[in-house]
Design brief:
The complex is a heterodimer of chains A (455) and B (388). With 455 residues, chain A is an alpha/beta fold. Chain A has a domain of 67 residues. Chain A is built from 21 helices and 10 strands. A 4-stranded mixed sheet of chain A has the order 7-8-9-10. In chain A, strands 1-3-2 form a 3-stranded mixed sheet. In chain A, β5 and β6 form a beta hairpin. The longest helix of chain A is centred in the last third of the chain and has 27 residues. Chain A is globular. The longest helix of chain B has 19 residues. In chain B, strands 9-8-7-10-11-12 form a 6-stranded mixed sheet, sandwiched between helices. In chain B, strands 1-4 form a two-stranded antiparallel sheet. A two-stranded antiparallel sheet of chain B has the order 5-6. Chain B contains 11 helices and 12 strands. With 388 residues, chain B is an alpha/beta fold. The radius of gyration of chain B is 29 Å and the shape is extended. The chains are: A alpha/beta (455), B alpha/beta (388). At the A-B interface, α3, α4, α8, β4 and β5 of A face α2, β2 and β3 of B.
Chain lengths: 455, 388
């Protein structure tokens, strides 16, 4: 038997230990795969996903990174029932024992965290299979309509992949066609008295239905909006938009709980390993060494890192929380929070000092200055890149009678205007499926309003 | 064969051993880059630096394509969070990372630094360009016009015994076994066969004269413009003629024949007397080439400032050449001033054209004009040849 088979002997026992320690998870299917495939999973975010040239670009960057020895992937896990965990076949025994425990931490998290539960409730617990289905469906579309046309749709859909509205349902109804009747609102006592004051308004008896504007309010879910309201989109094109959107609904909780989730899994792999008396001594020592490499805050040869390792931060925070609130308290937080509330509520001044976290300001020319300590500012510096799925706040504001789509960028939320050149390119992508003109308003450097148009 | 009830999972090949989606999508990216390079090929290749005659390829540096997303404008200054031994007020300088933190959007399409070097075969480029610009294929004035032939191109694992490439197959065997000293044993996978591809082959013989004015008024840039133009003319003519000879003549008030590398380095001083050049060309034609057997082309690049006293003689000499040649062309390189052929030599060619000779002229002021010039001459030649 080869070493890669050895670790499977421990899987069962680690699972039992995890269950005894209070973790509750769906069964996980483990599979050891070659490093090349691990890399592809990391590039695509899913084991089988739709084809697009932009993944090819990421793939090359990954290859370069790997050749420079920068990154090594031990595992990738996909939530679901059953969950799927892919382990690099180059992992040693110790690494695989550690990774198994880590994966169970993730499985516990994704089964119990509310945001995960909600999204999985909508996307289903079989995202891996769904994504493979999307890939097949898009492959068929390519055969039927040609690479060029399908690629044009994917260019647009994937460019908007972060622009979803997670607060709405995945399967959303179209807007009501007519504006709500004002009389149906007249239910409370104020409205009744108001109606009495002006009897003419209440008694016209004319049933005038008013068409609701589209969209009735600024719409953040651009993928949904384009798929539903594009004047001349074909049904296979809509399907591609909706496929990308479904995958985005899956990706969102992974993105929005990264610090908590990686921290939770790291906390549990460390703890389970400590308690696993069945692991041979040497494997234990190797695994602990591997653990400290993964959760290390700053690279070995450096004093300072200009980014924060989410594994380390999350791990350190969960250790403090378990110490403070006990395991039940920690589980409660794990279930309720996402990274935003987690960081704001539980990254305290003392912990930030202990971890030597700091805030800095970087200028374009590479000049970097460490700023005064400020806990609120530190929270925002960590969370800043995570707002709105990491994308600018662009929403659909109006569709003109000639079909022109008006998009607006809310610079008051984002603090500055859009990158004009890139935005123009995105409009070009989207215009090819919207098939009518698109106007996007944002602000320029000086802060005055500016309109981009396509074509 | 008896069926085995258990197939060991460790040896069964999984689909991901056989197929890489990353590589597939990378190839698609590559294809897109090639498509867009191809669209802008005339602009790219007219920059003279990409031309490398000996290699028969053109190397074009390209950046990776970016898939665009909505992104905020890059701010002058941006905040980030870090970890380690740093006190408020500490200052670092990080020139390698000229970018704020957190800007690495999802998927990290930010790294625009990697450059690819794409290599194109000059033959392919010329084919595309001729197709793109719908340039006519020339007809030879003498001899059969075209022929197609098989040429070697690449290798395959299958093929006829007679095309087995032993050297290549041996290499594959060594690669597989990793030990060149061991007794050579070939398996089918090692064998490599030469592939053949059908290419249009020009059938007949031609000579093209490139005549360059190197008088004091021609700047380096003018010479480089002329060189770029000449390079693509040669490529175009190679499509037509199996053996294409080139003759390089430079002149000031005298004329000399040069080899190709010398030709473009030559710079002279003094005035311009075109007839010396034309006479040199005539001399070479009568000494080496028989106009009845060989298609003759003359391309002349000059700033057009021929001395007025020479006009009669150069007219006579050029007319004589035109009688023998398939085509004579004139490019006026005057990067500083665009006089649009209103020069002594320009007028001379205009006269010839009016007289119905196979001649043409074009004003070349910039590298962007090179393709205009090539197109102009090849269309004019085709027309002139149709007329004869």
């Amino acid at each position: 038997m080869s070493t890669s088979d050895d670790w499977t002997n421990y899987t069962k026992r680690i699972e039992e230990l995890a269950a005894r320690s209070g973790l509750s998870f769906h069964p996980v299917e483990f599979e050891a795969v070659p490093d090349t495939f691990m890399m592809e999973i990391a590039v695509y975010g899913l084991p089988v996903r739709m084809p697009h040239w932009s993944f090819g670009v990421r793939y090359i960057y990954q290859l370069i990174q790997r050749h420079m020895g920068n990154s090594r992937l031990f595992e990738v896990v996909f939530p679901g029932n059953p969950g799927h965990a892919y382990l690099a076949s180059s992992n040693g025994l110790a690494e695989n024992i550690l990774v198994t425990a880590h994966v169970l931490g993730h499985a516990d998290f994704s089964r119990n965290n509310l945001m995960f539960k909600r999204c999985q409730g909508q996307v289903s617990e079989h995202i891996v299979e769904h994504a493979a289905n999307h890939a097949r469906q898009i492959q068929q579309a390519i055969e039927q309509h040609g690479m060029q046309r399908v690629e044009a749709v994917l260019d647009a859909a994937l460019a908007l992949e972060q622009h979803i509205d997670i607060d709405q349902a995945l399967r959303r109804e179209r807007y009501p066609e007519y504006a709500p009747d004002p009389k149906t609102l007249a239910d409370d006592s104020f409205r009744k008295r108001f109606a009495q004051l002006e009897p003419t308004a209440a008694s016209t008896g004319m049933e005038v239905k008013k068409r609701a504007p589209v969209p009735p309010h600024p719409e953040r879910d651009l993928l949904w909006f384009v798929a539903n309201y594009a004047p001349e989109m074909e049904s296979w094109e809509r399907d591609i938009f909706l496929a990308v959107r479904e995958e985005s609904f899956y990706f969102y909780p992974v993105f929005a709980t990264q610090i908590m989730n990686e921290g939770w899994a790291s906390y549990w792999h460390a703890r389970l390993l400590r308690e696993a008396d069945f692991v041979p001594q040497q494997a234990y020592v190797d695994a602990i060494k591997c653990h400290s490499d993964v959760v290390r805050p700053v690279a070995a040869d450096q004093q300072v890192a200009l980014h924060i390792n989410p594994y380390h931060l999350g791990f350190a925070m969960w250790e403090k929380i378990v110490e403070r609130d006990g395991l039940d308290g920690a589980r409660h937080i794990m279930e309720q929070d996402d990274d935003f509330s987690f960081i704001r509520n539980h990254l305290t001044r003392e912990l930030a000092d202990e971890l030597e976290l700091f805030r800095f300001s970087a200028r374009n020319d590479g000049h970097i200055k460490v700023l005064e300590q400020d806990l609120g500012g530190l929270h925002e510096a960590i969370l800043g890149p995570k707002y709105n799925f990491g994308a600018p706040s662009v929403s659909a504001a109006h569709v003109r009678t000639d079909g022109t789509l008006e998009l607006t960028h809310d610079n008051s939320v984002d603090g500055r205007g859009l990158d004009l050149e890139r935005s123009r390119r995105v409009l070009d992508y989207v215009q090819r499926v919207w098939r009518r003109p698109i106007v996007l308003s944002t602000v320029n450097q000086a802060g005055s309003t500016l309109e981009l148009t396509a074509p | 064969m008896p069926e085995t009830s258990e197939s060991p999972p460790s040896t069964a090949a999984k689909w991901y051993d056989l197929f890489s989606r990353g590589a597939r999508d990378w190839l698609r990216h590559d294809e897109k880059v090639r498509e867009s390079v191809r669209k802008h090929l005339p602009q790219i290749v007219s920059g003279a630096d990409v031309i490398n005659e000996s290699a028969r390829t053109v190397r074009v540096p390209v950046r990776m394509l970016e898939h665009y997303h909505f992104r905020l404008r890059r701010p002058e200054e941006q905040q980030g969070a870090g970890q380690g031994k740093a006190k408020p007020g500490d200052v670092f300088s990080d020139p390698s990372k000229q970018r704020g933190p957190g800007e690495k959007g999802q998927g990290g399409q930010d790294e625009g630094e990697v450059q690819l070097m794409l290599e194109f075969k000059i033959d392919d480029i010329v084919d595309w360009l001729w197709e793109e610009m719908q340039l006519p294929n020339l007809k030879a004035r003498v001899g059969p016009s075209e022929d197609s032939d098989w040429v070697r191109e690449g290798y395959d694992r299958r093929g006829a015994r007679s095309r087995l490439d032993r050297r290549r197959s041996f290499k594959e065997m060594v690669k597989r076994r990793g030990n060149p000293a061991a007794q050579p044993t070939f398996i089918d996978e090692d064998l490599r066969y030469r592939q053949l591809a059908r290419r249009r082959q020009p059938a007949v013989h031609a000579v093209v004269f490139f005549m360059l004015d190197v008088s004091g008024s021609m700047s380096d840039r003018d010479r480089k413009l002329a060189k770029t133009f000449f390079f693509w003319v040669v490529q175009g003519l190679r499509r037509e003629y199996r053996s294409l000879e080139t003759v390089f003549v430079a002149h000031t008030t005298e004329a000399w024949e040069f080899t190709e590398p010398e030709f473009f380095q030559v710079s002279g001083t003094g005035g311009t007397v075109s007839s010396t050049g034309f006479n040199k060309v005539r001399e070479i034609i009568s000494a080496r080439y028989n106009p009845a057997r060989c298609n003759i082309y003359l391309f002349y690049a000059s700033d057009g400032d021929n001395s007025v006293s020479d006009s009669a003689e150069s007219r006579e000499s050029l007319t004589a050449i035109t009688g023998d040649a398939c085509f004579t062309g004139y490019v006026e390189v005057s990067s500083g001033l665009s006089r649009q052929l209103a020069t002594e030599t320009g007028r001379l060619y205009a006269e010839l054209q009016t007289a119905g000779c196979a001649a043409g002229s074009y004003a070349l002021n910039d590298f962007d004009d090179v393709w205009g010039a090539v197109r102009h001459f090849f269309s004019a030649e085709a027309k002139a040849l149709d007329g004869t």
